[in-house]
Amino acid sequence: MQKLTQTLKALSDQNRLRIVIALMENDELCACQFTELLGIAGATVSRHLGVLHNAELIQFRKEGRWIFYRLNKDIEYPKSLLAWIHEQSETCTEVQQDLIQLQKILSSAPEDICRKQRSACCSD
């Protein structure tokens, strides 16, 4: 019961659900790409990613200074839950807007995104 509760709590936040949906559409994304997509502070994105990781919904790998996240395919997902999320997201305007925005984000290298985010942070 603990695992089920932890999974559902992790998915109950809109930003965390947006992360999972983005990962359902892309094999792997960098933390800076999530920051750009969600339009929130990097520390907040990191906290959301930590919740999803603790619930074992996502995994990460480090490559130099970059951290890349992907859905955890090593656990037995409740396939019907992910299928339902995918089905619901197909008709959700916000999700469709996220996917369009994500394609724009993916056209830039993570280095460029992080450089842009750092300069925006420093100009405040």
TrEMBL record:
Q: Which UniProt keywords apply?
A: DNA-binding, Transcription, Transcription regulation
Record field: transmembrane: none
InterPro entries recorded: ArsR-like_HTH (IPR011991), HTH_ArsR_DNA-bd_dom (IPR001845), Metal_resp_trans_reg (IPR051011), WH-like_DNA-bd_sf (IPR036388), WH_DNA-bd_sf (IPR036390)
**CDD domains attached to this UniProt entry:** HTH_ARSR (cd00090)
In terms of superkingdom, the source organism counts as: Bacteria
Among the Pfam families in the record, one is HTH_5
- GO-annotated molecular function: DNA binding; DNA-binding transcription factor activity
**The HTH arsR-type domain, residue ranges:** 1-93
The record's listing under NCBIfam families reads:
HTH_metalloreg (NF033788)
PANTHER family according to UniProt: ARSENICAL RESISTANCE OPERON REPRESSOR ARSR-RELATED
Give the protein's recorded name.
Answer: Transcriptional regulator, ArsR family
